[in-house]
Batch of 2 targets.
Target 1
Amino acid sequence: MFRFVPSAAALALAALVIASGHAQDPGDARTALYPYTLPAIDRGLSRAEGLAPAGVATLAVRNRMTATLDRTGRSGAPYAAGRVIVKFRDGSAMSERPSYSNFDVLRIDPSEDAEAVADELSRRPDVEYAQPAYRMHKSFVPNDQFYQCVASEPLRPCQWNLPLIDMERAWDIQGTAGSQITVAVLDSGMAFENKVIRFRGRAFVDDLGNVHPALGTVDIPFAAAPDLATAGRFVAPHDFIWDDNDPLDLDGHGTHVSGTIGELTNNGAGLAGVAFNVKLMPVKVIDGDWDIIFGAPNEGTDDTVARGIRYAADNGAKIINMSIGRTGPPAPVVEDAIKYAVGKGVFIAIAAGNDFEDGNPTEVVAEIASRVQGAVSVAAVDRSSNHAFYSSTGSWVELAAPGGSVRGFGSPGVVFQQTIDLTSGFCLVEPDACGTRPLFAAPRFDAFNYFGFQGTSMASPHVAGLAAMLMQQGITSPAAIEAALERFAKDLGDPGRDNLFGYGLIQARDTLRGLGLAR
Ligand SMILES: [Ca+2]
Ligand SMILES: [Ca+2]
Ligand SMILES: [Ca+2]
């Protein structure tokens, strides 16, 4: 049985025991060498062979890996040991704060129970909130089969998702497709620049006891995704995992999500994106496997995500997409940041989560959206506009968009965009996938493919893109954008709002026209 494990990809290597300890010494910092001038390699549609799916056994391994490094809280939600997030009522700071924080991170003994410490702090009258640094993850589901479009077929059938929301006729109304709007993508980074970066790859053992030798000092090439990069496209990039301005994608998730929002369209190459002229702000708040192997100083936790939201709002983003999330206890630090951003006129789209078949727990960040006019939680539908098997449901679901599903459709049922050729990363954790390839070698991030993913991660950027088009039409209030998206959504399932689809499947043309702003 195919099982989805939303946290697997983000956290797979979080649990690996890094042999030389966590990166604290400056020697672990990465070094940008020089702009990489060679063109990106476009490998076309993904080659299914050699990129075997994340099978059940592998995902189980990943789950066990995940269990060892993070501590598990009372609800089962993992958190980073050794710290507690605290906000004091009077706004006072305990010490020097990292960028974009209105809160403090209190260091505690890693063996201490961070939830108990947070509870104790919360009872103090001078404390507004205190919480552990719960782990965030990407909300996509590794796909069973990487679909290979055959050369004799046009690319269009690979992007069933755009006609499903009536995107083509919306482009008729607004050919500029959001050109004045900046969309921040809070994710694993983005393939947005050409660069070579020197890393130190350290030895580690995984949960099964496999020893992976140190790669030593390696110079890793990066390139901007050819079907995403164009002049003036990327604004104010920032990396909260590495604390610099190179939020490069060592994972592939963030670049894929960015493609749904704004992959270059009508350019005779690759695939299409919803609001294909928007400006993109890459904000890296989630770590991938290679970030961990290379010793990134920060992890994708609640505090990291909260900083990313505040940064985006302060640097001109009008839309934020968050194809990330977690389950477990509340996230006041993230809620505070979301309300701050919406208060500054930023609309936020948030993935509703992929845990429907895992007990369907409440997705914490998406649930916040349901209490904020101007932030929306986005569930996923499949190619037939049915509930996607993994998409979490609840009273907090507000909208639905195409997330794709292999069930009933096979590979053609998922969402395709251009992203990094993931071969090396997959070889690392899924040796069988790579046949005779080296099991562990330095990766490269300058080669691209068209990959299919499924998940509410894929649904959310459809909403972010359409919201950018509404903002381009002059609708500046995030609450008004949410109201329009919900009013003109196509009702699915039970009549009216329901827990599977919220107000329904977004409809691009109707929403643009419904506001009376069509030409
Ligand atoms: Ca294209
Ligand atoms: Ca809302
Ligand atoms: Ca309904």
Target 2
Amino acid sequence: MFDFDNTLVDFHKASLLAFGQTFEDFNLKLQPEYYSIYEKINGKIWNDFEQKLITTVDIRKSRFKLLFERLNIESVDGFEFNAKYLSNLVKHTTVRPEVINMLTKLKAHFKMSIITNGLKEVQRPRLDKCLMTHLFDSIIVSDEIGAAKPDLAFFDVAIKSIPNTIKKDKILVIGDSLKSDIAGGINYGLKTCLIDPYDSFLLVNADIVVQDVLELEQLLLDVYQPIDCGFYDYLEIYCMRKTTVKIDFTEISNQASVITKIENLFTKNKVEFAKLANGTTIRLDIIRELSPISDREQYI
Ligand SMILES: [Mg+2]
């Protein structure tokens, strides 16, 4: 589960460019210190929102109103400025081609979601602009569901958007925010990966810390050994339901099959196995066919 801003795309850069362009659009002279003043105001407002003190409507209405009050600029309507800033933010949102390449490779092995806190009128067009939504199995935007990270309610919706056979400890939340991504993921019992470009955090309880999301390509394909077995979801279900199954498999170019129940699925030396009720184990990548057998059928 990928966070979007400052995880997959450079929000700081897009926001700074959009901020400058909106000043130009309103024929206002931009001073170098304005953006950092805005960042402080915006940060406080999003903080208030996360603590449920204000709504997203308040964010839209007040952040630039407060900025212009602070700058003693009276000629501009903060709400209108906000709308223009958001449309400029869409224009300036870009994703590095290397990120798309990585996601394309990961898609072959993992279910992937985007989990993002943001305003719906801007997050969807920004996601579309990056031409990568087809790579994701689900996209959750906080403003659309009325709950934001790190709330459990947000993660409830996010988890329900992926197959329910995926165990929590097989789900990795990847994001740059200690509060919304990492704490949110940990509270929900998920694995976490912090994107920390400047090594800014000393005490981090995330499972993985990387400087750039691109490092995940090797790391995920190594640490989180992908399951090459297309039957994994079914194996889990049959294991849980104690269903008798016929497993056809290939071993040293010989075809074989076994009828048994699945007791457990486990990983050893980064290879996935199923422990079978007949006392043997089988490597998941040699399974060719898996079919459930009704109680009556197995005695025929
Ligand atoms: Mg982020």
